[in-house]
Amino acid sequence: DAPDDMKSVDYETWWKTKFMPKEFGDWSELLKKGAANHLTGWDISSRVSLNDMWFREPTMPAASNKELMGNWALALAGPVPSLVLNITQGLQEIANGQYERGLEKVMPGSISNLMIAHRYATEGIQTPQGVQLAQPGTVPKSEVAGQTIGYRPAALATAQDIAFKAKVVEKTILAEKNQLTNQYNDNFIKSTDPTMPVDFQQRFNQKWGDTLDKVIDFNIRHPKNQIDIEKLNESLSAHVNKIIETEMGGGVRITPQNVDLLGDAANEAEKALSKYNKKKE
């Protein structure tokens, strides 16, 4: 069968959110999370699971190789960098006025769990963006008690896991779309660069054709996220203009919006490069 977007990008998520509910009905959640979650209402399975026991893979897809290496470095470095990042995020939330949520990230786990449990009991469950997942007073006391010792409500864990996986799937598709657009622009510019040798231009002309084939393949696989050819050419035109604007500023891109701010810097950059632009006598 021709795979849909979810199945082709994240087979495991498709299996859990579409195949299992269809095939097993009300039993699917029990099969996915186990009897302990089902009986207690606590998210026990994720705490005792053997998945990712040796190392954790990066959670989000990367838009570039540099970002990919950074994600892997964070995943393999152990708990200390993640702890530092968590504290940094907590301090940022405090600075933004989210005092309670910020303290939850900064405090030790034993205190943090009590604070989260109190929030669930009094405010319900709400995302940092203000999305209300559970109204105040609707979280059972047993699930609030579980949170005090570090076990999230099982229903919340399921919903958060689905939402996170859905975000990853969408980001994966968009990352591939952006990557193909950038490759299309870059290969075309290099294939038509008059300052480069003919064999160089021919090489990138071939790569440009290959990228166009990949664009067509992407559009077949993801018909609702197609790369519009007309918009692709508009992107190419904008890319060319960006190169021209940057060359005019000696490596500093000058636009009507930033000319007052960066104009002097561009003049200095042009002055530094002026010796390369002198005509040979």
Plain-language structure description:
The structure is a single chain. It is built from 14 helices and two strands, in the order H-H-H-H-H-H-H-H-H-E-E-H-H-H-H-H. The N and C termini lie far apart (68 Å). The mean pLDDT is 86. Helices cover 68% and strands 2% of the residues. With 281 residues, the chain is mainly alpha-helical. Strand 1 and strand 2 form a beta hairpin. Helix 9 packs antiparallel against helix 10 and helix 11 packs antiparallel against helix 12. Strands 1-2 form a two-stranded antiparallel ribbon.
Task: Please describe the topology of this protein.
Blueprint: H1 5-9, H2 11-24, H3 28-33, H4 35-40, H5 45-48, H6 65-76, H7 79-95, H8 99-106, H9 109-123, E1 125-126, E2 132-134, H10 141-148, H11 154-191, H12 198-221, H13 229-248, H14 259-273
Antiparallel strand pairs: 1-2
Helix pairs in contact: 7-8, 8-9, 9-10, 11-12, 11-13
